[in-house]
Design goal:
It is globular and about 85 Å long. By secondary structure, it is mostly helical. Helix 12 runs parallel beside helix 16 and helix 24 packs across helix 25. The chain has 26 helices and two strands.
Length: 599
């Protein structure tokens, strides 16, 4: 039977076959995710665990079979294989592993991991399978139209609610028995705090992630950091693009607003570049971190060293500041690993520059254009982000060096003191790693830190704060007012007054929120100095993660304040900017002008 006759023979049953396959895949995806969560988070009996894994492997075998049937019913089979190459590759690995395991008695995936010294092969494989199941479930939900379109949510509201879903989902996972080493488990408020801190890429912690969480718990923490850093909107848009109807104009507008694209077409192409560059930078960063662990840093095995490298690279690029060491990078094995500190600092800078800036600087297309046209300048957003970041880094490095030279830097030589000052200047604005004891800093240094944290990183980045562009526009507006000029100008361009209004609105919102929350903290946790509470509050709002060590000792009210502050710091200013950019109602008339004395 040739191809054409086969297609004619299958044509009448195609719709029914696809309907059956979709429903089967949906039910099995839900079942598999539930079983995996139960196996990883609850069940401890080895016999029942093995039974669960047999059931999961059987479900995976059904997915392989469904994929083969889809190939059969895809009348243009070569195009289908090209379009679904990633799914096909993943299912091929699953088929190969199951065939070798159950037919040949040779578990190939586990053996490969064991041969390179990673005894956690089962865990790694199951985590990958879990991720595949979650992606498949989301795709199935989208294809069955149980998604945002059915409830007609605005993009900004959908963005806010996506973080709520991520946070509460993470908190629920942290409370599972096998996620922590605590016999009594993790109470809800602490789980909510850690999930918020990870999902909002802050880094404040009420427990030590390296000892309190099991490997499964640390993987959940890592996934929350990655998804919170890139933003759920990115993943939602990526999954939506897998749908038959593609991504509509509404989603393109949301991407345009949230990724700071210059046009809808640039925003559409930015998603692919964003994911590619993120994975590339994190991959290179993890490899560099792996090479720079000092000889005094000991790991249980190669698998542990690889996981530590990946965790710290992702945490650095996403500006999360989480570390698997009890005192962060101030812990004794890595306190003096200055090459490692510089690698982490570079990852933090890349993450804090913002995705539009990274794409403009490092995407292959942009680099080719600059090679062909060396005279072509960076985009205005890129110039502002890079120059402001550089200026703040120099200011923070010099300021920290001068203020702490006879304090926390007193035991270091000049080169070590300069590297430490540079690292703290980098991490204070965005990430939250520390190579000095934060509680021993002088009050002027803490005030400097609060200033740098409040500014934060650049738009479209994993960093928090009011953003470097907001700070620059405010300075330009002040300078324009002092010089009594009519227009805001930068780089031979005029900045619209609406942008200045938005910048001052973001600044006012951030200032009022921090003052209000600090006032509440001064009542609920009056046992701590106001400067330490201010550090904690601004660090939470700016999603930095630096702390003087009082986080775990905060009252429940104080923890709730910090949780709300971290959440609003991640989505609040962005939501405000979107709200201010909505369509306004214009009227033909204009009221008479009046004079109001200010200043």
């Amino acid at each position: 039977m040739n191809t054409e006759s086969l297609n004619r023979h299958l044509y009448d049953s195609k719709l029914l076959a696809y309907a059956i396959m979709r429903r089967t895949a949906y039910v099995l995806a839900v079942l598999a995710v539930g079983l995996l969560l139960y196996a990883h988070g609850v069940e401890k009996n080895q016999y029942r665990l093995q039974l669960l894994y047999y059931v999961i492997d059987a479900i995976l075998a059904v997915f392989v079979l469904i994929y083969l049937v889809r190939i059969l019913y895809a009348f243009e089979r070569i195009k289908f294989l090209r379009r679904t190459w990633f799914e096909g590759m993943l299912l091929s690995i699953i088929f190969l592993n199951e065939f070798c395991t159950y037919v040949l008695g040779f578990p190939v995936v586990y053996t490969v991991f064991d041969n390179i010294g990673i005894p956690l092969s089962v865990e790694f494989y199951r985590v990958l399978v879990s991720l595949y199941m979650l992606v498949l479930l989301v795709v199935e939900l989208l294809e069955t139209r149980i998604h945002l379109k059915t409830i007609q949510l605005k993009p900004s509201i959908a963005f806010i609610l996506s973080f709520v879903l991520l946070i509460f989902g993470g908190a629920g996972l942290f409370m599972l028995p096998k996620m922590t080493n605590a016999p009594e488990g993790m109470r809800f408020l602490d789980a909510l705090f850690m999930a918020t801190s990870a999902g909002c890429v802050t880094g404040l912690a009420v427990v030590d992630p390296g000892t309190y969480f099991t490997f499964s718990g640390q993987v959940v923490l890592l996934l929350l950091i990655q998804m919170g850093g890139l933003g759920i909107l990115t993943f939602a848009t990526f999954f939506a693009s897998l749908m038959r109807q593609g991504v509509g104009i509404k989603q393109h507008v949301a991407m345009h607003q949230l990724l700071e694209g210059e046009t809808l077409f640039s925003s559409k192409g930015m998603l692919r570049n964003l994911i590619f560059l993120t994975l590339a930078i994190e991959g290179i960063g993890a490899f560099a971190v792996f090479l720079t662990w000092g000889p005094e840093t000991h790991f249980v095995n190669l698998g542990s060293k690889i996981f530590f490298s990946i965790f710290h690279a992702v945490s650095a690029f996403c500006n999360a500041g989480f570390s698997l060491y009890p005192q962060g990078l101030y812990t004794e094995p890595v306190r003096y690993a200055y090459v490692l500190h510089l690698v982490i600092a570079m990852l933090i800078i890349f993450g804090g520059l913002g995705f539009p800036t990274i794409v403009d600087l490092f995407s292959p297309k942009a680099m080719r254009e600059r090679m062909e046209m060396p005279w072509k300048n960076w985009k205005m957003l890129t110039r502002v982000a890079v120059y402001t970041t550089a200026a703040l880094l120099v200011f923070g490095t010099v300021g920290f060096f001068l203020l702490e030279y006879y304090n926390t830097l007193s035991e270091l030589n000049l080169a070590e003191a300069l590297v430490t000052s540079f690292f703290q200047s980098v991490t204070t604005r965005t990430a939250g790693f520390n190579t000095v004891e934060i509680s021993e800093l002088s009050v002027p240094t803490m005030l400097l830190f609060i200033f740098l944290m409040f500014i934060g990183g650049s738009p479209g980045s994993t960093a928090g704060g009011i953003k470097t562009t907001t700070f620059t526009v405010i300075l330009l507006a002040v300078w324009t007012t002092i010089r009594n000029k009519r227009h805001l100008e930068i780089g031979h361009r005029t900045i619209p007054h609406a942008v200045a209004y938005k910048a001052f609105s973001v600044f006012a919102f951030a200032a009022i929120l921090n003052i209000t929350f600090l006032f509440i903290l001064s009542i609920s946790d009056a046992q701590y100095d106001i400067i330490k509470l201010a550090m904690e509050q601004v660090s939470a709002f700016a999603t930095v993660g630096l702390s003087t060590g009082i986080t775990a000792g905060l009252s429940d009210v104080g923890k709730l304040v910090i949780i709300l502050s971290m959440y609003l710091g991640r989505v609040g200013t962005l939501t405000l900017a979107l709200a201010l950019s909505t369509k306004a109602s214009y009227v033909a008339h204009k009221y008479p002008e009046t004079h109001l004395v200010v200043g």
